[in-house]
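Possible race condition, two jobs.
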Amino acid sequence: MALAAGAIVGTWFWDVAHDRLAVDDALARAFGLDPALARSELRLDQVVAAVHADDRDGLQQAISEAVGRGGRYVHQFRTRGADGQYRWLEAAGRVDLDAHGRAIDFPGVLIDIEERRRLEAERDQAQTLLRSFVEAAPGVVYAKDRQGRILMGNRGTTELIGMPPEHYVGRTDAELLGDPGQAAAVMATDERVMASGRSEQVEEEISFPDGRRAFWLSTKAPLRDGEGAVVGLVGTSLDITDRKAAEAQHREIEERYRLAARATNDAIWDWRMADGHVIWNEALSTLFGHAVTATSAQWWLDHIHPDDRGRVDAAIHAVIDSSSSAWSGEYRFRRADGSYAAVLDRGTVLRGPSGEPHRMIGAMLDLTTRKAAEAALAESEERLRSATEAGDMGFWDVDLVNNVLIWPPRTKAMFGISGQVEVSLQDFYDGLHPDDRQATTAAFAAAADPAVRALYDVEYRTVGREDGVLRWVAAKGRGLFEGDRCLRVLGVAIDVTERRLAEARLKELNEHLEARVLEEVQERTRAEDALRQSQKMEAVGQLTGGIAHDFNNMLATVIGPLDLLAARLGDQDPRAKRYIDMAIDGARRAAQLTQRLLSFSRQQPLQPVPVDANRLVAGMSDLLVHSLGSSVRLQTVLAADLWSTFADANQLENVILNLAVNARDAMPGGGRLTVETANCAQQCAEAGGVPVGDYVLISVADNGSGMPPEVMAKAFEPFFTTKKVGQGTGLGLSQVYGFVKQSCGHVRIDSRVGQGTTVMLYLPRLMAVLDAPPATAEDAPVASSGGQELVLVVEDEPGVRQFSIDALTELGYPVLAADGAAAALKLLDAHPAIALLFTDVVMPEVNGRELADEALRRRPELKVLFATGYSRNALVQDGVLDPSVQLIGKPFSVDELATRVRAALG
């Protein structure tokens, strides 16, 4: 009957004692077996073999446990039927044991549970989905029974209550909330919702466990059973504390706006663009007589003078249709009596999240009274202008209340400013000569001081802003006061340059004769000292240059082979590569030191390039630290967005190093040295002797012994030194002065005895956009291979010559080599395929430049690349490297050689 009803899909009987298994046809089909086997004895493994591989071990274990303990047996597994599909079955049976506890019989049935498993899976999935939804829902999600006990809650509920679910499930708000009044209010709302059977949305004030209070927007609905009866309540709550605060702030702002609109004398308007509705404050009636508080935008436009209407309409819509927010304009607005008032109108566009205009709020100011005053002032100024021009004078008027300066063209000309240029009081101060600024400023302050009310009577020099011309001006004036307040200071100015020049010439004539005699004696003394110092420095320069040449050749035989060795090893031995990199780095530092020695001895050709002073100062920090010693602390202050200048970078490094060493000598007991960079715009004219312009300022300051005025006055003179004989040449600051002047710059020195010295270098700002300088070894692209051109190497130093041959061969070039000019010319005649002459500059008998000239005479198409560690004057003209010369400095790496060879051949 069970089989016929379809609940049981098969039966079995297992005689465990004799290990005989019998099954019916239905079970055989459920296991995908031949039904004929059902009428014969089977082995257990034949039946188990049809079970799904993932369930087989579990089935065998369950059978073993049942046989061992006896009694009821139930187990679920999947079997493959005759159709090849797996289905879920449940085996239920019983194991009978004998008196000794041994299994005798094991009968049982199979039940099809496929549908049940599917329904259980769907149930589990739905429950998981529900749990995920509840946990992911923002805010608080909960359910309560009819008595108000919490049935479940999400993470937000747990955070609000401040305890885990196992502590609050089954309890009411009265038991959980610390505020009884709050709990009673929540439960009353819940009871009302459950009693009415209708959903409600309410705002509730909630107290958190940490004492914080918040506002929540709660949505509550009745919870019904399958028959529709209310059995509880479900709800969600969102924290709206921020929204409530924003609403309160908005109401406060609206109230402030309303009070401000009533308090101001301006006509305040609020234009809602959706429908063109405009709201006005009471000033519209007070100022213009229109007894309305609300109009349309068209009403406002119709009251604008016809000649101004189109312009104003276009201007305000240009702002609205763009991304701008501010608008202002002057126009004529019609009063209620038909007359027109001059007004200044300003407005601000309020936009939505996407930039769309919503509202525009503005204020209309009546300019009628001000316009009349301006007209009267203009008439008065015209009279004053006529009077001063008749007297060849320029007047001036300083409005201290509004910080406004009025100058006619004649007065502007005294400060080198064109007549149409707008000026401010700052232009007056900027135009004063630095030596006269303090006295002139003090005289003006005394004239404007209500307690002094002095007559402003001064003579001062001006430096023309546009033409740079120095002029003398005599100015007189008085202040206008209202009680204890100075409103204006006005007066006249006269150009007295010619008078001053005449006085200066007369004084010069009186002093000239005596000064000339003294100057001739001093000049002869300086010339004799200069000759001696020049001869000494030339000898030092020759010695330094020779040492640098030999040292560079030695470094070339170190850096180059290390570079080749590193390329051969590659990444095979990281430790060896690290040692090689350390050696190359040390050798390169030595090469950089050699270059600085050449530059210091003035054996380096001048090569001006665009210079980033911040990068240059940062790059030489290590050199400065080593040069200053441990007792001097170095500080660098680098300006942001520093301009570029155009100078010889090496010479500029030498200048900074020279100044640093001088500062160190001024601090024998130690101290602080500060190197600072800055952009120095027009205000640099305030510095004595520095014309108006844009400069890159590099200052070197110390807190050492300082210099008295008489020493500071001669500091830049050649061969002047305060050091003991043999301890200084006196060329340090004169070299600084010469380099800065050669670079079209200016240099100032500021020093106080016992407080320290600051030297300021003003290098002109590079305004033009120049081509980048040739790539250096650090930033040039690496050429990993060469070409097929034949290269002739000429080098008298065997080690350098062999490295050059190996490096070029490694790069893929065929190479010929010679140890001097004579052998090189023979090879050049014998090999017409030679494309590049790679020659050292300093060689015995015939130098590299002479060899190149002879080679080019024979082969004009030949390319030439020079290598040198000490150029002398073989490759320079007027101190500057010839742009057509291809040059590589010793020592050099393989990558640098590859780049320069390709550049020369190109």
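Job #2 (started ~2 s after job #1):
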Amino acid sequence: MNTYVGPERRHGHADGNRRGAPVGHDALSISIRPHPAGLRAEVGGEGTLENTIASWQLIVDHVRRHDARGVLLVDRMTGPALSAEQWRALVEAMEGQGLERVRIAHAKPNGLQEVEYCEIYALEAGIDARVFEDERLADLWLRHPER
């Protein structure tokens, strides 16, 4: 399993041009592949609420299809940080989708911004999630849960 969704696929373009999204749309790229703890997803592009929800919808689809128990998300999205209200909207959009049974390590190598709100709201929703700036620490936490 290896999934790549670039701007051309997300927006219906079949010309193979992965350099940018059509006018009026924000670019999104996502690669999902197996990881020893479940799945590794790497996302990039504009860090809008729309793109963040779209990437999580794809991740949830893979979690379901592969019965993954863990997700290492390497978030390389750029742009302004999502607000606390937008992080809450994301978590609310994902509630009941099956993430409650999945351990999630969210690595933000470009800086944490205000992502701690997402961790707080996820924990309130019963989702086992932690946010890290370092991918190696995220991977370690995901592979070796506290007992």
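Residues 7-25 have pLDDT under 50 and may be disordered.
Logs attached separately.
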